[in-house]
Specification:
4-stranded mixed sheet; 14 helices; 15 strands
């Protein structure tokens, strides 16, 4: 793709910024302390501001622009659909809605052949939990610490990271447990096998003490995303599947971030040969071009609502513009071998490149991931594994990570920074040269993080 010619227009940028500051209320932010970048445009793996600064996006938006920005075939599909049928209520059969559901169901594992459409990932989680509760007649839901499932009422209570704290009512029927994470093992494990065995034993103990007959569902991110990209050890997800079957618990996999090529497979569950009862998705299903999410539903759970109405729905469920974008995105991913590219890049370039950075930089404690879904765990000391900044650090305590992020941006890379980690999550169709450019920028920025090691 020929790089877009950037024409600086600082005056226009100042007007955009002024209107934003006057009227836009931003998520997860203290409104008076933020300074949002005014974005002038984006294309492929890059975006730019009104001052002419161009950034390689190693965040994929919020890990959703899996085919990059402004892919012409998806833009054209949205335009064509807008001219044909811009919107229609969800109770009707609409060709593009049916086709999007078919294409998604063809790629989900096992018998997840029915698709309930939502506007995004949090609503998908909300409805998956509702389905599980109605299917089982139980109320409790198990979820892991170090997880993120969305910001709506049930989803935020299921979330395991600190964004939950302000909204946690303690009365949502949620029970949390520790999922495996060998680098910072809660089980004092020394090997992946130990971590897997002890995590499964802990989970089954939790179920026993909570009362198996009270638990409707267990939800896990197949590969946790925002919380740190902790790839589960071999056998863990299969073990969870067995435990859920043993106690009649609905197994929900959250693939909102990990799905649609991000890990080098259509869905991350394929890496672990496991089929859940319900699977949530969003983000990469149409590269975020129009809001869309959903729940892929097993035949058994779908049968629960064959003659019993499902008590849930959304005005914009299966919106035609969103579904047209999904159909076009899936075809682009097939035609341009985007999933295969993500797998190859992770195995041959991004993974090895990040591990090489870890060897050179004392601030990099661990590298983990797959496909185009990676995290660098930044530390003060490699031996003690003390995080570069404290858990949920803010203000001055977070200065080392803020300095790292600023250095990355100065080098033309927009980084994904969360707590003591930076994630390398470029578009699934990222080019080899773009990966090399990103690694070079990370290399330079990590020298700033190195200054805070001991």
């Amino acid at each position: 793709m020929t790089p877009h010619v950037i024409e600086p227009d600082p005056q226009a940028g100042a007007a955009v910024k002024a209107a934003d500051r006057a009227h836009v209320f931003h998520s997860w932010s203290a409104q008076g302390l933020i300074d949002p970048l005014a974005v002038a445009g984006a294309e492929g793996s890059y975006f730019w501001d009104y001052d002419g600064n161009r950034y390689l996006d190693f965040t994929s938006g919020l890990v959703y622009t899996n085919i990059g920005y402004q892919h012409p075939k998806v833009v054209a599909a949205i335009q064509e659909q807008a001219g044909k049928l811009a919107t229609f209520a969800p109770a009707f059969a609409v060709d593009v809605r049916s086709e999007a559901a078919r294409l998604i169901a063809e790629r989900t594992p096992g018998d997840l052949n029915k698709i309930f459409f939502t506007n995004g990932g949090a609503e998908a989680v909300e409805n998956a939990v509702r389905m599980a509760r109605l299917h089982t007649g139980r109320h409790k839901v198990l979820s892991a610490f170090r997880s993120y499932h969305g910001a709506t009422s049930t989803a935020i209570n299921l979330t395991g990271d600190p964004r939950r704290w302000a909204s946690d009512t303690g009365s949502a029927g949620v029970v949390r447990f520790w999922a495996p994470f060998l680098y910072r093992s809660p089980f004092y494990a020394e090997t992946e096998q130990q971590e897997c065995e002890r995590a499964l034993a802990h989970l089954e103990d939790t179920i026993a003490f909570e009362g198996p007959a009270t638990i409707a569902a267990l939800i896990l991110e197949t590969v946790p995303g925002t919380a740190g990209i902790m790839t589960p050890p071999p056998g863990y997800l299969a073990g969870v599947r067995e435990i859920c079957d043993k106690y009649g618990i609905v197994f929900v996999l959250d693939e909102v971030m990990a799905g649609f090529g991000r890990t080098g497979k259509w869905f991350a569950a394929e890496h672990f040969d496991v089929v859940p009862d319900l699977m949530t998705f969003a983000k990469g299903v149409n590269s975020g071009y129009v809001p869309l999410g959903g729940v892929a539903i097993s035949e058994e759970i779908a049968a629960t609502f064959a003659t019993r109405p499902y008590p849930g729905g959304l005005t914009y469920s299966g919106h035609p513009l969103a579904c047209a974008a999904a159909v076009a995105t899936i075809h682009v991913m097939e035609d341009e071998k985007v999933v295969e590219n993500a797998a190859r890049v992770g195995e041959q370039l991004l993974g090895p490149g990040l591990r090489a950075l870890a060897e050179r930089h004392p601030s990099v404690g661990e590298v983990r991931g797959m496909g185009v879904f990676w995290a660098l765990d930044l530390v003060k000391n490699k031996e003690t594994r003390e995080p570069l900044v404290p858990y949920n650090a803010a203000g001055e305590a977070n200065a080392p990570m803020a300095a790292f992020g600023a250095a990355a941006k100065k080098n033309g890379l927009w980084p994904f920074v969360n707590m003591n980690r930076t994630h390398a999550v470029p578009a699934c169709n990222v080019s080899d040269d773009e990966v090399r450019e990103g690694l070079a920028a990370l290399d330079a920025a990590l020298t700033v993080a190195d200054e805070h090691t001991v």
